[in-house]
Amino acid sequence: MSGVLRRIWQSLFRGDVSRVFVILILLFSTAITLLLTGLQLWRDYRYELNVLDQRLEQVRISNLESISQSVWTYNLSSLEIQLQGLVRQQDISFISVEDGDGETLLSVGEDLDEDALQQSYALTYIHRDSPRLLGQLHVKASLQGIYGRLLDTFVVILITQAVKTFLVSMFIIYLFDRMLMRHLRHLVDQLGKHYSRAKPFNIERSVTEFNKGDELNTLVGSLNLLQSTIESEHQKLEKLASFDSLTGLPNRIQLKEVLDTRIQAGKSFWLGILDVNDFKNINDTLGHQSGDQVLYDIGLRLKCLQTPHCFFARLGGDEFACVLDGDAPARTIADTILQKFEAPFLLHAVQLQLSVSIGLVSFPDQASDAQQLMKFADIAMYHCKKSRSAFARFDPQLDEHSLNNLTLMTDAKQALENKQFCLHYQTQIDSDTGAVSGLEALIRWQHPTQGFISPDDFIPSLELSGDINALSCWVLEQALTDYEQLKPHLSKPLALSINISALNLLEERFLTSVEAIMLRFPARPTLVMEITENALMSDPEYACTMMQALVKRGVEFSIDDYGTGYSSLSYLSRLPVSELKIDRSFIFDMETDLRHFTIVQSTVQLAKSLDLRTVGEGCETAISSSILKDLNCDKQQGYFFSRPVSMEELISHFQSMDGSDDTSLSLELMSDK
Where are the bilayer-spanning segments (predicted)? Predict the structure, then answer.
């Protein structure tokens, strides 16, 4: 039922304004008419009841004495004549007379109407100055007549009010349509025509002496002003959609349009992607507001190169793109752009010398659509950054290398999930005693189809995919598990070193994970985490905080490949480091290269002054070992002592030395492997 009513309601009020207006007027008028009619009928009903009461009272006054006389004399014929006369009066339907015992003496009329007004009067007669009760007179007056008269009145009022309401509504609608709706329809027609053309316009309406100040003219003026404002804002939005708000250069959307247009034209052109080198340092050091100022200045310089044949756009961040005609060679194009970066940028009286990496790709020789052009230019630009050159032209081999990297990233993640990695261990020898004093855990991956893959290849892939934290935690847990197997075969504890990524020191969850793992190994060895000095320079303050938190939990830190990076000694003195590992490139030829010998010597002296241990890695000859010992290098590590071996081989070696000095320098079995 409710669904039917809802559909009726929707059909009534779903239409033009005139129709709805008429319906609302009729509904409102009908409601008012019914209310007023009800009030009038109630007033008439009360009046009729009052008249009926008066009529019954008149019966009592005029006829009660004569009826009493007829009852006293028991003149029933006279009594009947009197009662018949009373019943013929309006609305009186039934009269009866009862004696003193309650027996009916005489009744006239029909006692069928339940809805009636009834009155009873006592019949008395005065005999010898004494009133005597003779009985009761019962009079019933029917209300049906009143109801009929009220119904007739209701019908007449309803019909007259309905006709009046309808005529008034039609007249109001006529005025409403004449004075308002036709003008609104005209406005809607104009709006529909002009908006379909998507052009600026003004709504027109004839102005006369009578309507110049009315609301419709005010509405037309407001609509025209609104349309003008919308058009102005639309132009601003179009500019924002096509231009970069910071530099004023075209953005990525407009670049896509330019590329599509040139591709459809079929003429050769170059697409270049520019990336500002080390821009992150500007934001980190001088703040993002200063970084924005530098980007704005770069935009000004690139705008100077804008011509119909040379188009520049900002892609986002510190990346820009250029589209140039294909007549000039790549070197000439790159030199033209690089010249704009030769002059330093002035920022708050500070001169900044910036450089860019440019990757170039040509159409149609190397790419056939916009997506390929962007992809290949990106690949060339990243190759340019990696090789530290000013520009690079796309080489198909670079794309194959990028695809291999992507595949390697996926495979490395699956290898971590499927536990395809394993650990090998290389011993560290105490220079003074020649005893094994520590082990370094080195991760190994034997790919199911590609064979052995170097950590230098798959570690960056896991760093990019965000899985390096999981890998480092796996290495820690596996190394401690392996050490538990080795511990029964040792005469004294050995230090255990693992390599971690700089990204580990930038994640709080790494600290939580390490703490949870260490709690499972209460009898663990001295744990040393190795990290390169360059990695520490990305965010030294936060890295220092993380390192201090790990040191409090019993971890020591070692700077790996020391001497190949660009770390500041001031940072080095502040970091909670216990050990420096001198890079193998200096150890390998210090026997013949005096400069490398001097570097190793000064590094050992520096470490001693900072109360740090030193480890010479890459020791492969007896002479190198002897030199390190003479220079007071604390530990030595390299193929001269042992190659990295599995834990099973390491346990087997210590078992074979059972009963002998298992910490001696003589590890021939391991050296042969």
Answer: 20-42, 154-176
For residues 387 and 521, membership in a common domain is answered with no
- Do 228 and 309 lie in one domain? The reply is no
Does residue 149 carry a pLDDT above 60?
Answer: yes
Same domain, 222 and 362: no
* Runs of H (alpha helix) within 131-210: 144-176, 182-197
Tokens of 319: 């990346």
Element (H, E) at 471: helix 468-486
Residues 211, 143 within the same domain: no
Residues 49, 86, single domain; the answer is: yes
Q: Could you tell me the two tokens for 649?
A: 């081989």
Give the pLDDT band of residue 32 (cuts 50, 70, 90).
confident
- Total domains, the chain: 4
- Whether 456 is covered by a domain: the verdict is no
User: Is-contact 627 590, C-beta < 8 A?
Assistant: yes
Q: For residues 94 and 109, is the Cβ–Cβ distance under 8 A?
A: yes
Distance (Å, rounded) from C-alpha 309 to C-alpha 258? 11
Same domain for 136 and 54: yes
Structure tokens at 133: 């009760």
Domain membership of residue 608 (yes or no) is no
Q: Which position has the token pair 């032209």?
A: 393
Residue 629's nearest CA partner among 432, 456, 462, 436 is 432
**Tens digits of residue pLDDT in 575-620:** 889 999 998 888 988 888 888 899 899 999 988 988 899 999 999 9
Considering the domain architecture, whether residues 522 and 653 belong to the same structural domain is answered as yes
Over 50: is that where the pLDDT of 656 sits? yes
- The CATH number of whichever domain residue 496 belongs to comes to 3.20.20.450
- Is 409 part of any domain? no
Q: What range defines the domain where residue 291 resides?
A: 245-394
Between CA 480 and CA 487 the distance in angstroms is 10
Residues near 385 by Cβ (< 8 Å), separated by ≥ 6? 275, 277, 357
Range with the poorest average pLDDT among 1-5, 22-26, 433-437: 1-5
- How far is Cα 220 from Cα 212, in angstroms, rounded to an integer? 11
291 and 317 assigned to the same domain: yes
Structure tokens at 144: 């049906």
Question: How far is the C-alpha of 510 from the C-alpha of 469, rounded, in Å?
Answer: 6
Query: Alpha-carbon distance 86 to 93, whole Å?
Result: 9
Q: How far is it, in rounded angstroms, from Cα 499 to Cα 532?
A: 9
Domain contains 328: yes
Nearest 5°: CA angle at 249, between 244 and 253?
60
Tokens 């082990």, residue located: 439
State the Cα torsion 239-245-251-253 to the nearest 10°: -50
AA letter at 210 = F
